[in-house]
Amino acid sequence: MFPSINGGISRRNSSIPNNTNMCAQIMNNVSEENQKKNVYIKNFGPDFDQEDLRILADPYGTIVNCDVIRDENGNGRGFGFVAFSSVEEAEHCIKALHRTEIANGRIVYAYRAQKKEDRERKLEQYYAQQDRSKIVFVKHLPQEMDEKDIMDMFAQCGRVEDVDLYRNDNGISRGCAFVTFKKAQSAYAAIASMNRKTIGSVFGTSTTIFVSRAVLKGEKLNEKLGGQGSASSRDLQFNKSY
Prior knowledge:
This protein is α+β, with helices and mostly antiparallel strands. Helices cover 29% and strands 26% of the residues. The protein is built from eight helices and ten strands. It has helices at residues 22-28, 32-35, 50-57, 87-97, 116-128, 147-154, 184-194, 217-224; strands at residues 38-42, 63-70, 76-84, 100-101, 107-112, 135-139, 160-167, 173-181, 197-200, 206-213. A five-stranded antiparallel sheet has the order 2-3-1-5-4. It has a five-stranded antiparallel sheet with strand order 7-8-6-10-9. It is globular, with a radius of gyration of 19 Å.
């Protein structure tokens, strides 16, 4: 069973309606220019409401609107969007807030808001330029696990620098993530000790996770060809189907 998370912020009645599809709606209904004024903030926990998010982002500029994304039952999914009055304010929020610890002990992540396909393409391009000896790819994660749960689970292998959890347009986990460690030795340890490990779920079920090194499709193709041939540009994205 992965660790339970006890947020330090009490739940208040939120004016936000049940908005399972709001995440996709927000991104589909804004222009490219306005997207640059929108900040996507994640991992603040399920107890955060609209006012909590507004207080968190208020020091960085004039807030036009903010939304906490919720499931069909009205429960917070731990992420949301903040719209600022200018691009500069949004950029200031991202630089100041990204990877900082907030009052409930969680590490929050702040990014420029993008459509899911654009966000994943940028993410893959980013990882293609990194030292992937420090990065592992994990799949078959329980759907209810968030970034902090994953970080806590892999902390036994070494210091975790970042976790990128893939989600669908409704903010629901797709059960796979990239985990970046401070040292390559920690990534090797994660593969050796965590691959094919069975973990518990809050629903009383169990699942077997798979942990492997982060591999580009082009690299995987070359392995199959015995090192011959080269990958096309369309292959230069992470293979998420090991």
